[in-house]
Design brief:
The structure holds two protein chains of two kinds. By secondary structure, chain A is mainly β. Helices cover about 0% and strands about 50% of the residues of chain A. In chain A, the strands form three sheets. In chain A, strands 2, 5, 6, 10, 11 and 12 form a six-stranded mixed beta sheet that branches. A four-stranded antiparallel beta sheet of chain A has the order 3-9-8-7, with no helix packed on it. In chain A, a hairpin with a 6-residue loop joins β10 and β11. Chain B is mainly beta. Helix content of chain B is about 0%, strand content about 50%. Chain B has no helices and eleven strands. In chain B, strands 2, 4, 5, 6, 9, 10 and 11 form a seven-stranded mixed beta sheet that branches. Chain B is globular and about 40 Å long. The N and C termini of chain B lie far apart (about 35 Å). The chains are: A mainly beta, B mainly beta. At the A-B interface, β6 of A face β5, β9 and β10 of B.
Chain lengths: ~110, ~110
């Protein structure tokens, strides 16, 4: 069945460091891929998405490219801020209304 | 976008009791979803709620434990019945607004003692 695998956290970085959070998926065909962010005490918010191969989603300095050949959708940011500290979820949707989430990766950014 | 209000935002409940969580959306939506997020884990879909029909439950979740109501296109409730400490989780309501993007409420943090 469809599934999403994320790197385990926590990821601990200093401010202005480069961020990569790995995400790979298993699905037949071409699912839509998402990154959601959950700030402390809040619900999930959509960060970015890509709906077809080679698409790049971007928002708030974060980017992720839909790589069909490696079934990946890694999240990157060139310079993280303390305010980026949150839990990040990779997710997919494939021909249904249901989202399948990865386990989440906690990011901690220190000044 | 959709604005989703969930309440209560948190509660501490005695084991054996039940809690009903409400989810209100500011616009009409066809499908509403209920998720559980156990401590340190990802989101697991409990059920999908359509207006005018019974909810569809995912494997491992049953109506007797998690009854759901969907009286109209803007409102749904999830009840956690006969609670035990293992039910301590964050419960999230979600709607799929555009077919490609889901919106979430802020969640209900439930602690069962």
């Amino acid at each position: 069945g469809n599934s999403v695998t994320q790197m385990e956290g926590p990821v601990t970085l200093s401010e202005e460091a480069f961020l990569t959070i790995n995400c790979t998926y298993t699905a037949t065909g071409y699912p839509s891929l998402f990154w959601y962010v959950q700030y402390p005490g809040e619900g999930l918010q959509l960060l970015l998405k890509a709906t077809k191969a080679d698409d790049k989603g971007s928002n708030k300095g974060f980017e992720a490219t839909y790589r069909k050949e490696t079934t990946s959708f890694h999240l990157e940011k060139g310079s993280v801020q303390v305010s980026d500290s949150a839990v990040y979820f990779c997710a997919l949707n494939h021909n249904t209304d249901k989202l399948i989430f990865g386990t989440g990766t906690r990011l901690q950014v220190f000044p | 976008s959709a604005v989703i209000s969930q309440k209560p935002s948190r509660d501490i409940c005695q084991r054996g009791t039940s809690l009903t969580i409400q989810c209100q959306v500011d616009s009409q939506v066809t499908m509403m979803f209920w998720y559980r997020q156990q401590p340190g884990q990802s989101l697991t879909l409990i059920a999908t709620a359509n207006q005018g029909s019974e909810a569809t439950y995912e494997s491992g979740f049953v109506i007797d434990k998690f009854p759901i109501s969907r009286p109209n296109l803007t409102f749904s409730t999830l009840t956690v019945s006969n609670m035990s400490p293992e039910d301590s989780s964050i419960y999230l309501c979600s709607v799929d607004w555009t077919g490609t993007e889901a919106f979430f409420g802020q969640g209900t943090r439930l602690t069962v003692v």
